[in-house]
TrEMBL record:
One of its GO terms (cellular component) is Fanconi anaemia nuclear complex. Residues 64-84 have a biased composition (Polar residues). Residues 293-369 form the FANCL C-terminal domain. It comes from the Eukaryota. Gene3D superfamilies: RWD domain-like, Ubiquitin Conjugating Enzyme, Zinc/RING finger domain, C3HC4 (zinc finger). Pfam families: FANCL_C (PF11793), FANCL_d2 (PF18890), FANCL_d3 (PF18891). SUPFAM superfamilies: RING/U-box (SSF57850). This is E3 ubiquitin-protein ligase FANCL-like. InterPro entries: Fancl, FANCL_C, FANCL_d2, FANCL_d3, FANCL_d3_sf, UBQ-conjugating_enzyme/RWD, Znf_RING/FYVE/PHD. GO terms for molecular function: ubiquitin protein ligase activity. GO terms for biological process: interstrand cross-link repair; protein monoubiquitination. Transmembrane segments: none annotated.
Length: 373
């Protein structure tokens, strides 16, 4: 859908701008006949070919423009010059826009349309879906200048820190995606540790962590909590910590932490190191009955849809679709999944059902449009 829209937009700019700017669309000129006087008072009729006629017309137009410019300078008039200058500036801007569209379009083709999630109408803002080696989905947002690639793009993503962009005039969007994938690879260990903390410890804050967050507040019992700040560049190193709770317990934990911090071994699992330094059995997350467990949507990352009249009857509803792949089992709002599938060019539609692939495991999924289940 996005691709078709950009195709039509690109076709318009490609056809209209160069013709107006370069004036390459010319009418066919018929041979020109004229009478040339001779020295004896007589004359003869000569005929010019189409090519010669064209050259004559062009030279006449050039002479006419030169004469007009000279007269304007002589009499102080500048309206014609201003008009031509304005038109020239406008055509140049249109030509730049056309070249920009063609370039960005071709570079999206190189990456693959299936990875494009969103794009602005002017193509200056693009969002790509990138998977890391662990199958996690990441959205990279790119902002382009009209003079791209002379000016490098700006990047934003849900990561703890962004990478230093390597860019030159010969760089393309696929190089940007490749650099982002290299950056994701560096962060895989960090995210694996954060996932283990969320899965095996009693995390009280944040309730809905983003991939950029590098802290966790953990319940360690006796109404005492520890705030861990993990170094995203060196996640296996000893984290910074802050204890919260009753003063006697906190003072004791601080003393134990300082005494045992040298026992932290980077090659050991993070949770094992944490339990050894604290000299305590870490609490696991409280059991939640499966039928009462609220799952976050894998697309909007929220448990519930917003309360909105446009979402009726799904307004405020929880996730209602789960991937059938047992190794994935990712939950979605059917509304979000339907919007996602509609934006992917490989999605098929049969009656009121979209058929496509899961955003996380790429296994087949099918969701009803405006499903009321």
């Amino acid at each position: 859908k996005i691709k078709n829209k950009l195709n039509s937009l690109l076709s318009f700019h490609f056809l209209s701008v160069p013709l107006r700017l370069l004036k390459t669309k010319r009418k066919k000129l018929s041979p020109l006949h004229f009478f040339q006087p001779l020295g004896n008072g007589k004359g003869k009729c000569n005929s010019l070919s189409e090519v010669e006629t064209t050259r004559l017309v062009e030279s006449h137009s050039k002479a006419k423009w030169t004469n007009s410019t000279s007269n304007n300078q002589r009499y102080g008039t500048s309206s014609s010059c201003y008009s031509e200058s304005t038109e020239g500036t406008r055509c140049r801007k249109l030509a730049e826009t056309s070249a920009f569209y063609r370039l960005v379009y071709s570079e999206i083709e190189e990456i693959g349309w299936k990875h494009l999630v969103r794009s602005a109408g002017d193509l200056k803002s693009l969002s790509f879906r990138i998977l890391d080696n662990k199958g996690r989905v990441h959205i990279m947002e790119i902002q382009l200048d009209i003079h791209y690639p002379r000016f490098p793009p700006s990047i934003s993503a849900d990561v703890p820190y962004i990478f230093d962009l390597r860019w030159s005039m010969s760089s393309r969007l696929r190089d940007l995606v490749q650099q982002f994938q290299e950056h994701l690879k560096k962060l895989e260990d960090f995210w694996s540790i954060m996932d283990d903390i969320d899965k095996f410890l009693w995390v009280v804050d944040p309730k809905h962590p983003s991939r950029a967050m590098a802290y966790r507040q953990i319940n360690i019992g006796n109404d005492c909590y520890i705030m861990l700040s993990i170094n995203s560049r060196d996640p296996r190193s000893l984290p910074e910590c802050r204890f919260m709770g009753a003063d006697p317990i906190v003072n004791s934990l601080i003393s134990i932490w300082r005494r045992n911090s040298k026992r932290w071994i980077k090659d050991n699992p993070f949770l094992e190191n944490l339990a050894r330094v604290l000299e305590t059995q870490l609490l696991r997350p409280p059991d939640v009955p499966k039928n009462n467990q609220q799952l976050e949507c894998g697309i909007c990352y929220a448990q519930f849809l917003p309360v909105d009249d446009e979402l009726e009857p799904k307004s405020g509803s929880a996730t209602d679709y789960t991937c059938d792949n047992s190794k994935c089992n990712r939950a979605f709002h059917s509304v979000c999944l339907g919007d996602w599938l509609r934006s992917i060019t490989t999605t098929r539609q049969s009656f009121n059902v979209y058929f496509g692939s899961c955003p996380y495991c790429s296994e087949p999924v099918a969701v009803k449009i405006n499903s009321k289940k």
